[in-house]
Amino acid sequence: MKLLKFDLPVLKGLVVIAVVVSLSACSIFKNKHDSLDTMPVDALYNKAHVSLEKSDYAAAGKAFQRLIARFPSGEYNEQAQLELAYAQYKANRPDDALSTVNRFIKTYPTNKHVDYAYYLRGLINFDRTGGAIERLLKRSDQQSRRDQAYNLQAFDDFSELARRFPDSAYTADARQRMIYLRNVLAQYEINVAEFYLRNKAYVASADRAQYVIEHYQQAPQTGDALAILARSYLAMDQKEQSDKVRKVLALNYPDHPYLDDPKWPHPPSTLRKMVPFSGHH
């Protein structure tokens, strides 16, 4: 095997080039790494904000966190905390986002954007049950078959926004989300009431139905609650009470199926139970 042979001047030249390239590369990477630690506050904020606008939530979050650490006070710090919470929310890090936004609300209760912080807190909890895909497909029936802790919290968050800032630009949307959540929460109670009714736990089904009537009066599920309550009373041999509830149902929901079908609601079919993710199990 023939070895390559370099003249000494050529070899020295290659060594010099290699060293220069190596140092240049190190300098480039070092500058890139250290830029977040050396940039002035306005440039650092702009860098983070541009990353946020480009949907690079990881880069935005990293830059906002460095800004907050390096500049622990001032308008840039306050704005960075709020935008950091949004970046974490969009990056599907709800626990971090909630921690950040709660800290912002507690630390800066008079900030001019604190209404947005309350709104963002509601959004974080709003998206924790199910997700955007189900809402996009209008699958609220699936939502109503899951644990409702986050939906209850989101409802309270939006309610607090509406109470504290009735004229906020975010309040109208918050109220619309509250209506959606109210209906989901009411349907959840109806699902539980139907389960108790099918299993002949009539006191429990009546209690759940009564809860819907008392707490979600404007929800479309109120008619179902009245029907379940009437049927539960009838099953418990409280015909007088059942007749009273039935009259209220007929007056307010004259087309409700229970008025013509005393066995409403019917249990789900065996075929429906076999459908994956139908919720009827």
From TrEMBL:
A GO-annotated cellular component: Bam protein complex
Subcellular location field: Cell outer membrane
One Pfam family here: YfiO
GO biological process terms held by the UniProt record: Gram-negative-bacterium-type cell outer membrane assembly; protein insertion into membrane
Keyword annotations from UniProtKB, A to Z: Cell outer membrane, Lipoprotein, Membrane, Palmitate, Signal
Membrane topology term: Lipid-anchor
PROSITE patterns per UniProt: PROKAR_LIPOPROTEIN (PS51257)
Domain Outer membrane lipoprotein BamD-like: 39-246
InterPro entries on file: BamD, BamD-like, TPR-like_helical_dom_sf
Primary location group: membrane
Oligomer status and interactors: Part of the Bam complex.
Similarity-based family: Belongs to the BamD family.
Role noted for this protein: Part of the outer membrane protein assembly complex, which is involved in assembly and insertion of beta-barrel proteins into the outer membrane.
The protein's name: Outer membrane protein assembly factor BamD
